[in-house]
């Protein structure tokens, strides 16, 4: 039988499946709380604390976004590293390590001295912590998604994988909500100590996540592959690049478009609407929090549709929705109206982003066989994240200042380009929903034909 998917008749206990889903969701939430908290602080705090006060504020913000990008650059490296050991020795232990790394980094950022205290060592230390953070997230996303997807029957794989994926917006809700509460402090107090508390609170979340990860069992798919002797002793990344070159490319491009929108809203648009004067810092963060909360439910909704109708149809319709709504979304952002800006966040996250992003976990997982899946999913998603999310703040800043008067229209056209490439990649990909069931059916038909022919 094709090992690219879970067999249709493989026993999956309800208790273990539930535990795996909860563990993946909580672990992913903690990871992305820490990772996205940095993104929120990059535009609101770091330019003022970790660079010389003689530096132009715009340059300080650009440098903060460059350091932000460093985390995205190291995410594929972390994905390949943890994917290698995850495909060789199992998913569970790797996820325990990534969560521990993430928690330690966030505590370190919360305790970091500023430029006024240690000078140029401050931004250098920030770069180092961001790199370690990127390595941890690089191994987290694929592992958490696979632990959820590989613990359930294939007919529910899209929805199960999306449970881990919703850790992203859940982490964003927590990050922006907690940071937003402290953002209401007077500017001096917020920059002095208020912004540090959300990072330090990460310790409590990590303890809960580690406890859940300790209790979950190893992936049934991986255990079965081990028993059947399908786990290779070679290098998984080599097999992925040689065995799945086009599948990997399609996965990268399919992820880049929706991930660009996610990063744009979380990192660039908050300071953008604050600087416009339409809303204050706390209001903008609360708008993002509200849209991220709805996003938590939108992702499994679109993932559930992909379980019923297929990954390709849902993602292609999502691409059409994204293209149709991106210009209206930016018009709302530029309206100067409190409620219309809040609506813009709602259009961007739960509708534009989720419509293509919801099925992405299952879409990527089903492209690779079990013994190569952790590496394959890590590589494709994290490279897509680098191309889409990692470059989003810098690209948006550059596009806004092209000098052609296009402003946010330039960003909209660039997003449309990414979505067109994503849609083309999805269209050229094979439909993988219920792939194992179809493979099993073909095998049974082949046996019946042989019996009848005797």
UniProtKB/TrEMBL annotation:
Segments traversing the membrane: 21-50, 62-82, 94-112, 118-138, 159-183, 195-212, 249-272, 284-302, 314-333, 339-365, 377-399, 411-428
Keyword tags: Cell membrane, Membrane, Transmembrane, Transmembrane helix, Transport
Presence of the UniProt keyword Iron in the record: no
SUPFAM superfamilies: MFS general substrate transporter (SSF103473)
Entry membrane topology: Multi-pass membrane protein
Pfam family for this entry, one: MFS_1
Main location (coarse class): membrane
Protein name: Sugar phosphate permease
Organism: Glutamicibacter mysorens
Superkingdom classification of source: Bacteria
């Amino acid at each position: 039988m094709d090992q690219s998917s879970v067999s249709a008749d493989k026993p999956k206990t309800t208790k273990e499946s539930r535990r795996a889903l909860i563990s993946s969701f909580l672990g992913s939430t903690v990871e992305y709380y820490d990772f996205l908290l940095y993104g929120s602080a990059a535009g609101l705090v770091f330019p003022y604390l970790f660079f010389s006060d003689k530096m132009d504020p715009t340059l300080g913000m650009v440098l903060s976004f460059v350091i932000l990008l460093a985390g995205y650059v190291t995410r594929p490296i972390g994905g390949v590293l943890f994917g290698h050991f995850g495909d060789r020795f199992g998913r569970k232990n790797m996820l325990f390590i990534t969560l521990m790394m993430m928690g330690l980094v966030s505590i370190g950022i919360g305790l970091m001295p500023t430029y006024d205290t240690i000078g140029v060592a401050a931004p250098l230390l920030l770069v180092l912590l961001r790199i370690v953070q990127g390595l941890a997230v690089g191994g987290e996303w694929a592992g958490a998604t696979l632990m959820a997807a590989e613990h359930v029957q294939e007919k529910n794989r899209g929805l199960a994988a999306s449970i881990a994926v919703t850790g992203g917006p859940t982490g964003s809700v927590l990050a922006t909500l907690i940071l937003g509460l402290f953002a209401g402090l007077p500017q001096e107090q917020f920059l002095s100590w208020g912004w540090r508390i959300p990072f330090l609170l990460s310790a409590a979340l990590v303890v809960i996540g580690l406890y859940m990860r300790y209790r979950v069992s190893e992936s049934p798919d991986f255990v079965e592959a081990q028993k059947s002797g399908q786990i290779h002793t070679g290098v998984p990344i080599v097999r992925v690049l040689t065995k799945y070159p086009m599948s990997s490319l399609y996965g990268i491009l399919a992820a880049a478009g929706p991930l660009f929108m996610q990063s744009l809203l979380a990192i660039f648009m908050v300071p953008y609407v604050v600087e416009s004067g339409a809303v204050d810092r706390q209001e903008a963060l609360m708008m993002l929090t509200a849209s991220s909360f709805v996003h938590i439910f939108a992702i499994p909704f679109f993932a559930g549709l992909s379980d019923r109708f297929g990954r390709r149809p849902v993602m292609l319709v999502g691409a059409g929705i994204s293209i149709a709504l991106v210009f209206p979304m930016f018009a709302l952002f530029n309206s100067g109206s409190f409620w219309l800006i809040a609506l813009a966040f709602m259009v961007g996250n739960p509708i534009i982003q989720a419509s293509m992003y919801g099925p992405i976990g299952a879409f990527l997982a089903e492209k690779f066989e079990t013994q190569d899946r952790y590496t394959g999913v890590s590589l494709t998603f994290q490279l897509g994240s680098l191309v889409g999310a990692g470059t989003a703040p810098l690209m948006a800043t550059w596009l806004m200042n092209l000098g052609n008067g296009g402003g946010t229209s330039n960003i909209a056209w660039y997003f449309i380009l990414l979505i067109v490439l994503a849609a083309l990649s999805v269209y050229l990909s094979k439909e993988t929903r219920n792939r194992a069931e179809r493979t099993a059916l073909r095998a049974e038909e082949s046996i019946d034909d042989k019996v009848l022919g005797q």
